[in-house]
Design brief:
heterodimer, A: alpha/beta, eight-stranded mixed sheet, globular, B: 13 helices, 27 strands, 24% helix
Chain lengths: 473, 561
């Protein structure tokens, strides 16, 4: 009889605990990936390993992990898990690529022209890509401001942007900025510059102007002048570059130009964050390492224009051996979907270890973009940006099963397959509507074949320069 | 049934024509159903109009002895309808030179166009917000017949060139002089997210945003500088005089609204972002996908001038073409439901014709919106009081109330019923009797009266032409698809790198043909003029781009039957 009050109290405590337990469970939002081969891109490959995700972050990595009741369990037996792939050079989901009127277009910002409904984004997710650097084209010595996004397809555009990612800007050297001008209208001179030395002069001039501009503002802020200076959208981002707050992603091919650019940057007291394409970067690997630039390359694509003749597939291996952070990018909506295979080639060309090859599409681009604290590898505390593959990601026979960003699934092969009949039904219903029927008279013929599939990859053999507007890579 | 009823509707709309305009001192409409919009609908009442204003309205009003009487039996009286976005009253400049000039002339013209034109503004055409439509309006009310026939009494009119389209005005569609027509000028600054042509910055959407932004920053700074100088000029350089930037002052002060042309979700979001960044009072014009952005519109309290120019398929059926993308099919279907969804969400919206080709289709499409979830009451408000509220003239217009401007639209039967016919329009107290006469198609004003030459051509250049475009050092293949009806040409132009562009306007000329179209590549859209000649199955000519002239030649594809 004596125990009864104690028992009652015990029951009460238990009852009180249940709701709090339930709430805790709801807010934790757990996902448990079980029994996978986990390629961490940081601490080797772990067999038969579980990953516990809580509130979009990787909470635990280990064996026989337990999730709370209600957690989503994904059985990944026989499957591989890698970090989400990061594409360090993309022009996807943007409605404009080049502002080619001036040689310096740093006033433009890719943020203004994002198109989150671009289907290429979904296709990239199906290839395991979760993050990308969206760059301005290469028609200008100094191009527009870039943004780093996660492919949260279906979400409002502002949720794509990685808020704590350092801002970037596109530079371009060589043929594109010097030659990408349209044939000028009769009687008009072509846009300056027309030579590689002119490109360098344009960049130097811009930074000299940026320094003057900064001084003007410093004087005003210190009360030495009374009239507020102009806010110059062209020079603002260049001041940020000078202050080390904005990363320079410089498109180029030739080693001499890169050396020049790095020297110019050092003269102005900043560093080039990445050499983009960098087909000849292997020739100056120690200099690149010393400067501290990363290099973001195509693995085995060269000779598509004169300045790309000296490209070699061993570029990545040589740079890596010299301690340069290397990433492999797509510069193309199409190639973006199979960056895993481009990474695999690094093993073939130069014998780079498997994990280092994987890093070239995950942790290394994360480092180049300054987002490696939150993504790029499978480590506790990082965002759960994960890809589940049905086989080894470096096999041509493997494909992506599931792609998640911050613990949320954005591509799932089974869901995709299941939705196809639904979509076909919807299409049939929509096609029946009057508004979607072909006009009975006065219509225009539809495009045959279908419209040009957008692909920004530079291929001078196939695309005349005039149409490319200077190309993008 | 629905198809038949809409056919009847179209027929009824087409069958108004002859207008009898009357200037009478006082008008009384008796025994009519009066939809006041601001108050209760009066089933059987009288409206008295004097001196261009509503003198009295109600059930027990006696028509004055001197009034011109309209027997309102079977008539419904509405406040005059608004079309909240047009380019009416403008002398439309001839878009293309005629007759088709020789390539040499075209090249010469191109080089002349590049020369800086003397102007008071340091900004290129297209970035001149100081332009005010009112200075370019043609007086005279006969030009508005089509709109009045459709019950429209008041419109917003604005130029549509460039990025800053300039300041719009609210005008009544009656009056002998521009001053008489004007209700409010300027009303708003209009902005279109487009590029400039001729290789002038901005040539891409990227540059468009930075150009707008830079000018707004510069305007803010100039304003600050001016204030400093006005307070004490000693020791200060005097501020520049800059008409363009000064025209932006009322925008950044929040005194003048900014109408952004934005139809898709992302265009609307871009407009809202820009408005937020600079504290602008935004109005969205177009708004086909406004229903997708309801939360943002609400949060920023932004109304919509909803376009009735609903998207519809314009391409003919073809077995060879890819099926249309699902997103396009969805977009068209969802646009019909937009008004209903905005109503449900409590977003303020008014209707606009949106450049609709056949003006009377505004009624067909309002009815479509009603079929897709919009209430009749809100449809009426979107044509009247809500429009007046968004335009800031609801103290004078938009409802039938004593003292308001006498703008009224009178119809036989309910305005949305298929038996409806608009019988009278009263603007500023001036009566326009609309008589049903022989059928006539209503054309959007702003189009020139048909310039088609009377000589019908015996030539027919319809067909698919495979062409080679000569770019220095390159030959690019392309396809020109032409359909000829009379002297008019429609169709498309295609290359592998530009995709397909629909011909905006095209016609036969004395020597050949001339086509105008927008070509997109590299993120920019460029206006291109194609002039050429056809001889047998041979075609040749010049493609005039902002960057210069390119020649092409080709042959007609055999027709497979």
């Amino acid at each position: 009889m004596k125990e009864q009050p104690i028992l009652a109290a015990f029951v009460l405590v238990l009852l009180a605990l249940i709701p709090s337990f339930l709430i805790a469970q709801q807010t934790k939002n757990q996902i448990l990936i079980r029994n996978a081969t986990v390629m961490t891109a940081a601490r080797g490959t772990l067999e038969n390993t579980d990953i516990l995700i809580e509130n979009g972050k990787i909470a635990k990595i280990g064996k026989n992990l337990r999730a709370e009741p209600g957690a989503k369990i994904i059985d990944a037996t026989g499957k591989y898990v890698t970090p989400g792939i990061i594409d360090c050079h993309s022009h996807t989901m943007i409605d404009a690529v080049n502002e080619f009127s001036y040689s310096v277009t740093s006033m433009t910002n890719i943020r203004d022209v994002l198109n989150p409904t671009e289907i290429a984004v979904y296709r990239a997710l199906a290839g395991g890509v979760t993050t990308a650097l969206l760059l301005h084209g290469s028609a200008n010595a100094i191009g527009g401001q870039s943004v780093t996004v996660k492919f949260k397809y279906g979400k409002p555009v502002e949720e794509f942007i990685i808020k704590d990612a350092p801002p970037g800007i596109k530079f371009a050297l060589g043929e594109n900025p010097k030659r990408s001008n349209f044939p000028p209208p009769p009687g008009q001179t072509p846009r300056y510059p027309r030579t590689r030395m002119g490109v360098m002069e344009v960049i130097r001039d811009a930074f000299l102007r940026a320094k003057d501009y900064k001084r003007e503002w410093d004087d005003y802020r210190a009360g030495r002048t009374k009239i507020p200076p102009r806010i110059d959208l062209e020079l603002e981002p260049l001041v940020e570059v000078l202050e080390g707050k904005r990363f320079v992603h410089a498109h180029g091919y030739r080693s001499d130009e890169f050396l020049n650019l790095m020297l110019l940057a050092e003269e102005f007291g900043f560093r080039i964050r990445t050499l983009q394409h960098g087909l000849e970067a292997y020739k100056i690997a120690p200099e690149v390492a010393k400067h501290g630039a990363g290099v973001s390359i195509f693995i085995d694509n060269w000779s598509f224009k004169i300045e790309a003749y000296d490209g070699i597939p061993y570029n990545a291996a040589i740079l890596w051996r010299n301690g340069v952070i290397v990433s492999i990018n797509s510069d193309s909506d199409e190639r973006m979907r199979r960056l895993n295979l481009d990474a695999a080639k690094v093993i073939k060309y130069g014998g780079v270890p498997e994990e280092e090859a994987l890093k070239m599409i995950t942790l290394n681009p994360a480092k180049q973009l300054g987002i490696d604290k939150r993504t790029g590898s499978i480590e506790v505390g990082k965002d759960a940006d994960l890809v589940i593959w049905n086989g080894h990601p470096f096999s041509v026979y493997s494909r992506v099963e599931t792609t998640m960003i911050e613990g949320e699934i954005y591509f799932d092969r089974q869901q995709d397959l299941a939705r196809r009949s639904e979509i076909e039904k919807e299409r049939q219903e929509l096609e029946k509507l009057d508004i979607n029927k072909a006009p009975t008279s006065g219509g225009t013929p539809p495009p045959i074949p279908a419209e040009y599939r957008k692909d920004h990859h530079d291929n001078a053999d196939e695309m005349p320069e005039i149409i490319l507007q200077g190309g993008n890579n | 049934m629905k198809r038949i009823s809409s056919l009847i509707l179209v027929f009824v709309i087409f069958s108004w024509a002859k207008i009898l305009a009357q200037n009478v001192g006082s008008i009384a409409i008796t025994n009519a159903k009066i939809i006041t919009v601001s108050g209760k609908t009066i089933e059987n009442g009288t409206i008295v109009i004097r001196n261009g204003l509503i003198e009295a309205v109600g059930e027990n009003i006696k028509a004055p002895a001197d009034a011109f009487l309209i027997d309102g039996k079977d008539l419904s009286v509405y406040p005059g309808f608004f079309d909240t976005n047009t380019s009416l009253g403008l002398a439309t400049p001839s878009v293309r030179p005629t007759p088709s000039p020789s390539p040499e002339v075209l090249i010469q013209q191109a080089s002349q166009q590049q020369q800086p034109q003397p102007s008071a503004s340091k900004y290129p055409p297209g970035l001149r917000p100081e332009i005010n439509v009112i200075e370019q309006l043609r007086p005279g009310e006969s030009q508005f017949e089509t709109q009045r026939n459709n019950g429209i009494t008041t419109v917003v009119t604005v130029l549509r060139d460039g990025i800053f389209n300039g300041q719009s005005a609210i005008i009544n569609l009656a009056g002998a002089t521009v001053a008489e027509m004007t209700i409010k000028s300027p009303f708003a600054q209009h902005i279109t997210f487009r590029t400039l042509s001729g290789g002038i910055y901005p040539t891409s959407l990227l540059g468009t945003f930075s150009a707008i932004r830079q000018m707004l920053h510069d305007a803010k700074r100039l304003k600050e500088w001016k204030t400093l100088y006005e307070n004490n000029p000693l020791g200060l350089q005097r501020p520049e005089i800059d008409k363009s930037l000064e025209a932006l002052f009322p925008l950044i002060e929040g005194k003048m609204p900014v109408v952004f042309y934005a139809n898709t979700e992302r265009e609307i979001i871009r407009a809202l972002d820009l408005a937020k960044e600079f504290g602008l009072r935004a109005i969205i014009a177009g708004g086909h996908e406004a229903w997708k952005v309801i939360d943002r519109l609400k949060a920023q309290d932004v109304p919509v001038l909803l376009s009735l120019n609903f998207p519809k398929r314009t391409t003919t059926a073809s077995e060879e073409a890819d099926p249309e993308p699902l997103s396009v099919l969805r977009f068209r279907a969802e646009t019909l439901k937009c008004a209903g969804k905005l109503e449900k969400a409590g977003i303020k919206f008014a209707f606009q014709s949106g450049g609709i080709q056949n003006y009377s289709d505004i009624w067909t499409n309002i009815n479509k919106a009603i079929e897709n979830g919009l209430s009749r009451e809100t449809a009426i408000r979107a044509l009247t009081l809500t429009a007046a509220e968004i335009l800031g003239v609801s103290n004078r217009l938009g409802s039938i109330e004593k003292g308001k401007i006498a703008n009224l639209t009178v119809s036989k039967g309910d305005i949305f019923s298929k038996e409806r016919a608009i019988t009278h329009v009263i603007i500023d107290g001036k009566l326009f009797e609309i008589k049903q006469d022989k059928p006539q198609t209503g054309k959007q004003s702003g189009d020139q009266p048909s310039t088609q030459t009377t000589q019908t051509s015996e030539r027919n250049i319809s067909g698919t032409w495979s062409i080679s475009i000569e770019i220095p050092g390159q030959t690019v293949p392309g396809t020109l698809v032409l359909t000829q009806e009379g002297n008019a040409l429609t169709g498309s132009f295609q290359t592998a790198f530009t995709g397909t562009s629909v011909i905006k306007s095209g016609r036969l000329t004395a020597e050949g043909f001339i086509l105008s179209l927008d070509v997109t590549f590299g993120g920019g859209t460029f206006e291109v003029t194609i002039t050429g000649k056809v001889s047998g199955n041979q075609i040749s000519g010049i493609i005039q781009t902002p960057q210069g002239a390119i020649s092409f030649s080709g042959t007609k594809n055999p027709e497979w039957r």
